[in-house]
Amino acid sequence: MKVIAILMIIAACSVVGFEISNGFARRTKNLRLWKDALRILEAEIVYSQTPIIQVFQKLSKQLPKPMKELFAQLAKEVADERGDLYEIWSEKLEDFSKISHLKTEDVEILKQFGRTLGKYDILQHEKQIQLTLTHLDRKAAEANEQNAKFGKMSRALGVLSGIFIALLLL
Amino acid sequence: MIGDTGILFQVAGIGIIVAMIHTVLKQMGKEEFAQFVSLIGFIIVLLFVLNSISDLFQQIKSVFFLKG
Amino acid sequence: MEIIEIVSLGIVTTIIYLLIKDKQPAIAFLIVFIAVLLFFLYLMQYIQQILALIQHLGDKANINQVYIKTIIQIIGISYLTEIGSNIVKDAGLDSIASKIEMVGKLFILILAIPIFHSLIETILGIFPLS
Q: What are the TM regions of this chain, as residue ranges (chain C) (predicted)?
């Protein structure tokens, strides 16, 4: 009975540690996905000059899981004309930031980008996309570093604190 | 019969775990947290010791008529 | 063979102490502390028996209870001082250990005063000085 309780405590704390470390890993991954998305967006806007709804649809087809739903919803809501593009964009980003472990500063960069979307000509758009990409590059480098640094640490700390609490209650 | 030796191993385990947490935190450059964890571990162990020392003193008092 | 338990406890304590000493000197010291406490707690049971024997003998010899009690208290104080000074010495503070011992000696002297007093009275009773 005691052994089971001890194992449960250790397991619970380990899960918390792994979850935190996962958060760091997911942030890195999502930032990389966003960079991909912006590159595709750039190609579509600058070279193919596709309308924004079709761009979103294309993006939702090309990108993997968490981004897929985001762009699908964006395409749908823009098509329904549920309001300003920027409003929809920032609203969806808020929802997205809850599941993607992105930090507020990352979301803020993307929101800034959304503010410019559809307001200027193609040349301006290209510049804006480039600007956002450099911002995201910096954030991605930072996230990578943090992932390498704290990912392992939080895992080790989770397991160790579990054992520690179990020992205290022994 | 020797008394409750489990406390010895429990304290040893806490010491080792605290040392490991200290090492991990120090490696990641969280010096102040590492220091803090060491202090907390020490205080917890001190509480254990406090219990057993009060046991001993109570027993000495009752055996040697040192009440009052 | 309870001596085996004591010896093995000592060895185990030493090993654990060596293991933790480099990383956490404070906790390593507390482990030694716990081991010392366990040893003395173990000794208490036997001391109780010895004291019971002394009291029994005193009763049989018709010695005043106060004297026996004083002697036992003196033993108790010396025992306590021993524990305290041992633990402090383990931490490497010999100067404080010697102060504890000094205070212990003084207290023993204070406890002995009533016995000394009655001794003087007896002597004065044998040689009437007036």
A: 26-44, 106-127
Residue C113 lies in a domain: yes
Whole-model pTM over 0.90: no
Alpha-carbon distance A132 to nearest alpha carbon in chain B (angstroms): 31
- Residues 17-46 in B contacting C (C-alpha not used; CB under 8 Å): 18-19, 22-23, 38, 41-42, 45-46
Is B66 part of a structural domain of the chain? no
Q: Over the stretch C63-73, which tens digit does the pLDDT of each residue have? A: 888 888 888 88
Yes or no: say if C20 and B15 are a contact pair by the CB < 8 Å rule: yes
Number of domains in chain C: 1
Residue B24 CB coordination number (10 Å): 20
**Do residues C124 and C112 make contact, with C-beta atoms less than 8 angstroms apart?**
no
Please provide the distance, in angstroms rounded to a whole number, between the alpha carbons at the two ends of chain B: 30
Query: Is residue C88 domain-resident?
Result: yes
User: Based on the structure, what is the number of domains in chain B?
Assistant: 1
CB-based contact C34 B8, cutoff 8 Å: yes
A106 min Cα distance to partner chain B (Å): 24
Mean residue pLDDT of chain A comes to 81
- Asked whether residue B1 carries a pLDDT value surpassing 70, the answer given is no
Domain that holds residue B48: 20-60
C118 assigned to some structural domain: yes
ipTM of the complex: 0.83
Q: Are A167 and B17 in contact (CB under 8 A)?
A: yes
- Residue with the bigger pLDDT between C27 and A86: it is C27
CB proximity under 8 Å: C 8-37 to B: 9, 12-13, 16, 19-20, 23-24, 26-28, 30-31, 33-35, 37
